Amino acid sequence: MFERKLIALEFHSPNDFDYQDDKAFRNFISWLENQKIRFYSIEDRVDLDSVDSENWNNALEKYLKDLEIEDLNLEIPREELIEKLLSHAIRLEYTDNIEKINTFQANRDEFLRQNSGSNPLENIDFTSPDFVEGLHRMQRLLNVPTRPNDNLTVLQAISKLIADKLNPSSVQMFLDEQKQSKIEKESIQLTLDSISTGIDSMDQILNDASKVLRLLHIKELRDLQTKINETIVNIQAITANPKTDSSLGKVGV
Amino acid sequence: MTRTYQEELEYLEQINPYSWRIKKGFVPNMKVEGVFYVNDHLKDLMFEELRNSCKTGGIGGFLPGMKQIANVAALPGIVGKSVGLPDVHSGYGFAIGNMAAFDMNDPEAIVSPGGVGFDINCGVRLLRTNLSEKDVLPVKEQLAQSLFDHIPVGVGSKGVIPMSAHDLEEALEMGMDWSLREGYSWAEDKEHCEEYGRMLQADPSKVSDRAKKRGLPQLGTLGAGNHYAEIQVVDEIYDKYAASKMGVDFKGQVCIMIHCGSRGLGHQVATDSLVTMEKAMKRDKIETNDRQLACARINSPEGQDYLKGMCAAANYAWVNRSSMTFLARQAFAKTFNSTPDDLDMHLIYDVSHNIAKVEEHLIDGKLKTLLVHRKGSTRAFGPNHPLIPVDYQLTGQPVLIGGTMGTCSYVLTGTDEGMKNTFGSTCHGAGRALSRAKSRRNLDWHDVLKELEDKGISIRVASPKLVMEEAPDSYKNVTDVVETCHMAGISKKCIKLRPIAVIKG
Question: Are residues B54 and B130 in the same domain?
Answer without folding.
Answer: no
